[in-house]
């Protein structure tokens, strides 16, 4: 069913794909679909797990430390945008205006969990929560930047775009709570 959904996304927007469309393309009964998924959005998150895992591998390798320079762009950030460019059509379908808020939220939560360990070593708060908020902030900024880059047609190369946003990512990651 995952392959059927990915084929259908190639033909039309995710918001226009129904369970009937998926089951018809996959040649399975609706009851089989509902044994595994709650709806098309659930299937979309599952179908993109491998692709999201690749993105998360690149984001978890992002390393911003106190000695990070605005000029020393992380190769991992370039890898993030290269991955998105490679899977552009699918990311546009999922993150675009006709995408799925649930899939976006799923990806945002996974990105936050991926980035959190990098920030938690620097941000310790006896009351808890600082590293959670900082990871959510950086993840949201990165995912929002990815969505904007896609929306604008991925101008420039992944390297050039990573270089352009690296200073903002460094600043956001190194900011200390008041």
From TrEMBL:
- State the UniProt keywords alphabetically: DNA-binding
Pfam families in the cross-refs: TetR_C_8 (PF14278)
State what protein this is by name.
TetR-like C-terminal domain-containing protein
Instruction: Quote the PANTHER family the UniProt record gives.
Output: ACREF/ENVCD OPERON REPRESSOR-RELATED (PTHR43479), HTH TETR-TYPE DOMAIN-CONTAINING PROTEIN (PTHR43479:SF23)
Q: In this protein, which residues make up the domain named HTH tetR-type? A: 1-55
The species is: Streptomyces bugieae
Q: Which residues bind DNA?
A: 18-37
């Amino acid at each position: 069913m995952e392959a059927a959904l990915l084929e259908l996304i190639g033909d039309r927007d995710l918001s226009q794909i129904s369970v009937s469309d998926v089951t018809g393309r996959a040649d399975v009964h609706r009851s089989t679909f509902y044994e595994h998924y709650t709806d098309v959005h659930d299937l979309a998150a599952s179908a993109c797990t491998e692709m999201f895992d690749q993105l998360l591998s690149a984001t978890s390798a992002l390393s911003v430390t106190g000695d990070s320079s605005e000029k020393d762009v992380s190769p991992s950030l370039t890898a993030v945008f290269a991955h998105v460019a490679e899977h552009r059509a699918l990311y546009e379908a999922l993150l675009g205006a006709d995408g799925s808020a649930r899939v976006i939220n799923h990806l945002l939560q996974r990105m936050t969990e991926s980035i959190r360990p990098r920030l938690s070593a620097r941000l310790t708060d006896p009351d808890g929560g600082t590293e959670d908020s900082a990871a959510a902030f950086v993840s949201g900024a990165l995912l929002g930047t990815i969505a904007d880059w896609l929306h604008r047609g991925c101008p420039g190369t992944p390297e050039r775009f990573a270089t352009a946003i690296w200073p903002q990512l460094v600043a956001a990651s190194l900011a200390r709570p008041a």
